[in-house]
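Weekly puzzle thread! Below is a chain. First person to post its structure in token form gets bragging rights.
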Amino acid sequence: MRTTNQKIRTMMLLIAILGASVCVNAQNQTKPVAAVLGIDSKGVIQDGESISYMVRLEMEKANVYNVMDKYDVAEGVKKNNIDLTTCFGKSCVVASGKLLGVDKVITGSVERFGEKIIISLKVIDVKTEAVEKQDATEYLNLQPELQKMIMISVQKMLGLTTDQNLVNLLINYEMPVASPKTQLNLNGPRMGGSMMFGDAAKILTGQESKGGYNMFPVMFDFGWQQEWQYLSAGNFQALVELIPMISGMESGKFIPSVTFLNGFRMGKGGWEFAFGPSFRIVKKIDGFYDTYNLMGNGENEWYITNEWNVTDTTGGYLHALTNPYPITKRIDSRGTAYLSTSLIFAIGRTFKSGYLNIPVNFFVSPRKEGTTFGFSFGFNIQKKKHIE
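Winning reply:
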């Protein structure tokens, strides 16, 4: 009984395999037979024969036609004395298709124009001599990615779905923001120094008992730059930069700051200009300047409001005089923490050594209390982005 069941299962399996084979053969027989003939090649590394092989491979992967094997094409071409290196016109490829006995012929060209690679492909019906399908697409001049460009062109020509992310990476006129040609990413550590001038420098170096910080006028800065590119075209980049920094460590202080910059990087030399707001926490307090030396410690000395103690003995009575000076808020180490803002303008250039990028920037921050000048530099290693 078991032997009979095994025989039945074996027969059913053989029938299923035979049926599937018949279906596949029937499906293949219903597909038109197509031959990839000469593909013209100009200005690219690969020759016409190599490009024809790429097109044939992508046509086979598309599984729309029964693509004639390259050896069969070579044998038929040799037998009928067809020169594929010059046979690109419609009449020639149609005549060649008739001699090869195929239903469709695929031809086209791959040419470089400046910083573009233009791939043009078409499917011609041998019987009607009409162009059934065609596509012409411009790509970035990324010759190592030519196989992927041909894949996209074949898919577009046959009306198949394409990988939009890959299209954006290879076709810059449709998606200039994603152009990898000019992309330079400078994420990495930053360090440098800054120096204050004006009243801010006096406060910074002043005694703490008088509201100063007892610091050096020159501060060391250390932080990180994170950037996001939102436009890339030609040798021009537009980007947003976030730079958190820590300053004052050489004086035993911890002064954090955050700067947002809108930057423009241009030219092959890596020149950059940027501007934007900077935010930091500072201490401020209400006080006054003793313009007329009423406190007796010198003209224009700074005092906080509760330090006013000038008295008068007019009429034989001791009484306090009203403070005649305007009250203003100023940076003072005895004060309350406030969020301080300023505007920064920066210019710089990126130097390269192999994969090593070294950005160097100079900046200025003008403020009423005093202007700050500084510089920063950093480094990172950025390898060329590989397109998958």
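Puzzle host: Confirmed. Bonus trivia for everyone else. The chain has seven helices and 18 strands.
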